[in-house]
Design goal:
Blueprint: H1 9-46, H2 52-61, H3 64-77, H4 88-100, H5 107-120, H6 126-131, H7 138-151, H8 157-161, H9 169-182, H10 188-194, H11 200-212, H12 219-225, H13 228-232, H14 239-252, H15 259-271, H16 275-285
Helix pairs in contact: 2-3, 2-4, 3-5, 4-5, 5-7, 7-9, 9-11, 10-11, 11-12, 14-16, 15-16
Amino acid sequence: MKKKQVTNEQPEKKSALRVVIHSFFVVPLIIAIFAVLIFLVVRIITSEPNTAQDYLEDVKIGGSTKRWQGAFELSKILSNPDMVPKDDRFILEMISAFDYAANDRDSRVRQYLALAMGATKDSRYVPPLLASLDNPETEMIMASIHALGNIGDNGAVQPIINMLDHGEAKVRLQAVISLGKIGDKSSISFLKEMMADSEVNVRWDAAVALAKLENASGQRILLDLLNRNYLDSFPNIDETEQIQAMLVAIQVSPFIQDMELKKSLAQLKKDDPNLKIREAARKALTQFE
């Protein structure tokens, strides 16, 4: 009986196949991946961030999505004073893009451009923003009023006062807030009237705006805003909104140096469960005489 001969031919073939696969596919793939990674790292390191001019070009010549995104990025980047171009050419191009955007099917383009202009705090943008207050769209009016408030030019006071009788509560609210930012005392009598508005948020912010103008007419409302029991009576206001309302009232309280407000602040500093509220009250108390 013959013995069966053992051969290593099959394993040797498999081993050779592995070498071929490894040499011609795996190694080149790994090298290619590393090359791509190195390229991306170098690209990120050497690439320069977009400037305000770059985003303005997106608004002017970009597609529908590119336009509103460019305007949105402008509203963010121009809030940094170091990123705001000072040359007249950029100002004129911004105003031109803003005017042209009145015909854009996407209203967000013009709204974000308004916010971008307001972020610069440049009074050269006041005329086109005032002209846009005639827009029938509520969101556009709000964006323009917000921008005018940020710029703080007294020339916008009367046009914003004219918005205080607008049918939309959110427009009246934005008008009240912007008047408080501008800080022109000619608006005091109108802000006093807004403390009787049908919308509670308008009443609250009217009192805040008056305090910024060092007028104590809204003292009772501010005391309410420092009272958690009062805020709890509004079930549609969540904890975050409640804290924000209290923080705003705390920040403006020292402007009118009222002793009842000082007493409420001292109580908050001692007993309020929220650390931010206690710290804000502590800082506000240091501003009382």
